[in-house]
Every structure is written in C-alpha cells, then in structure tokens.
Design goal:
315 residues
Length: 315
C-alpha cells in the first residue's frame, strides 16, 4: 500500500476547537432549558416576598422593592382555609407528615418482603402472583375509589364495634389511618416491582449458604438482603414519598375538614373567597407544600438513577 493510500484511508481527526464548540452548544441549551423550567419557581419565590400592593400593581418578574416575609407567616398560621375554622396550613402540613411517614415505611417494607419471597423463595404460581401485582400498577386512581371506600367503611364499622367493646378503635375509621391504608395498598405493586427486579440480580448463592448455616427466613432478610438494599430503598422511598405527598384525589375523597392533607388545604386556600386574592400568600403556601419533595430530591436525588440501574443487569 502506498503512502498516498495510507493518508487517504486514515480517518480525519476533528480538532479540539470542534469538541469545545459542541460542549458550549450543549451546555448552552441545557442552561436555557433549565432557565425556562425554573422561571415559574422564581416567579413564585419573588411573589411570595412582595407586599400585596406591589404584586397587584407591578411586574411579576420584578424583584421585590420591599422585601417581606409576612405572606409566609400568614400562609403558615393565619390564612383562612376554606370554610374551616383552622387558620394557616401548619396543621394540614403535619397531617401530611403523619400520613406520609408510616405509609412510605410500611409500603417499602412490604415491597421488600414481597420481592424477597418472589425471587429467593419461589413457590408454585409465584409468576402469576407477580403478574397480578404488576397489573395493579396500571390501575388508575379513579378505578379504586369506590372499592376503597367500601373497604374503609367496613373497617370504620369494625373500629366502632371495637371501641364499644374495649374502648379502643385502634385507629380504624380515622382519616389519617384510612389514607395510610389506601396509599400502602395502591403503592404495594410498585414497591414490589422495584424490589423484585433488584433482588433478582442479587446472588442466590449467599441466600443458599445462609440456609445451610441454619438462618431463618427473617434472619436472611434482615442480615443479608436489607443491608445490601440501600440503593433500591432510596428509590422506593423517593418514589413513594413524592406520590403520596403530592396526592390530591385520595386526600380529597377520604379526608375532610381539619383532617385533610396538605394538597387539599392548598386547594381550599387558593379557592377561598375573601374579596381579595392574596397571590403572595398563595405562592408562599405553594412553596411550603412543595418544599418537602424538593428537599428529598436535593438530598437523595443523585441516588435515584443509580438505584434504578442497580438491578438492571443480572450478574
């Protein structure tokens, strides 16, 4: 082969200037998309820090001329929420906390147990069981409202009977407990899917070795599976926390008045008619409502994709 052929057959290398230009274009587009995405949040923050007269008479993109945190104080403890006598969203905020924390913990634990059983303790029909739970992931919220209402009504009557007999209803019929039950049941299909796929890639040899050593069902789960499940636990907690905290349909259906969660209270606040729409108070309340999910993503968001990919490849 001649020298000329070697020259013509060698692929041309692009100079460093080309790659630098490509990076500039990519980062420029990413910055533009991020800016467009964050503009509504920026407007919300600026509006919540302005007096009402400045909001109604000025440019919504203008920076606050008189910085004030009074709208935040009013949203938290003074604003009227619908027809309720409760003032501010603080009580409803803690209603959501009392609902979300146990619902996330219970659904995550049950999903982990289901995934463990379906992958390491296979039984006749386990694929059918998993298929049915997977099918539950595609059932829309609206389809389960009436069945859930019937079940919760029956549990409430049981709670009344227990209260008459023992003096304790064990929370049956309580609005917060009802919402915990609803979210655990509805989220169980998703949590089972996450853990089942993750544990399918977990070495079965470790489980078999523990069985030979005499470890019980729960000892294997507690000492071997759970300590190695941190990535998928983070994924499940983020997913469940976000879905449950942001839910409006179940909250507005199965809770009312002072027992309502944060999203229902925010809707009631915005739709409360007092003659003047206090946009700054509404924006402050919306930011408070969104803060927990934003905080969860800021703290653990980088582990979300890592946890999803952890069980993607077996071996």
């Amino acid at each position: 082969m001649s020298a000329a052929d070697l020259v013509t057959s060698t692929p041309s290398r692009r100079g460093p200037g080309h790659s630098r230009t490509t990076r500039i274009v990519i980062y420029g587009l990413l910055f533009l998309f991020a800016l467009v995405y964050l503009v509504p949040l920026l407007v919300m923050v600026m509006t919540s820090l302005k007096p009402l007269d400045e909001v109604t008479g000025g440019n919504m993109f203008a920076l606050p001329r008189h910085l004030t945190f009074a709208p935040w104080s009013m949203a938290w403890g003074e604003a009227r929420i619908g027809v309720s006598d409760t003032r501010g969203i603080s009580g409803y905020f803690f209603n959501s906390v009392k609902m979300v924390v146990p619902a996330v913990l219970i659904s995550t634990l049950l999903g982990a147990l289901n995934g463990y059983v379906l992958t390491k303790w296979s039984f006749s029909g386990h694929k059918l069981v998993f298929g049915m739970m997977l099918f539950a992931c595609f059932i829309p919220f609206q389809s389960v409202i009436i069945p859930m209402a019937v079940i919760l009504g029956a549990l409430g009557r049981i709670g009344v009977g227990l209260a008459d007999l023992t003096g304790w209803s064990f929370g049956l019929g309580n609005a917060t407990v009802n919402l915990v039950i609803v979210h655990v049941i509805y989220g169980l299909g998703f949590t089972t899917l996450f853990f089942r796929n993750y544990y399918a890639a977990f070495p079965s040899e470790l489980v078999k070795a523990a069985m030979i050593d005499g470890a019980s069902f729960f000892q294997i789960f507690r000492r071997i599976l759970l300590p190695n499940s941190t990535p998928i636990i983070i994924v499940t907690v983020i997913y469940q926390f976000t879905n449950i905290w942001n839910d409006f349909l179940f909250g507005s259906t199965f809770a009312a008045g002072d027992t309502a969660p944060m999203t229902v209270a925010l809707n009631n606040l915005v739709n409360t008619s007092t003659g003047v729409v206090e946009y700054n108070v509404n924006m402050a309340a919306a930011i408070i409502a969104a803060a927990p999910t934003l905080l969860v993503y800021v703290i653990a968001g980088r582990y979300f994709v890592r946890g999803l990919m952890a069980g993607a490849v077996k071996g």
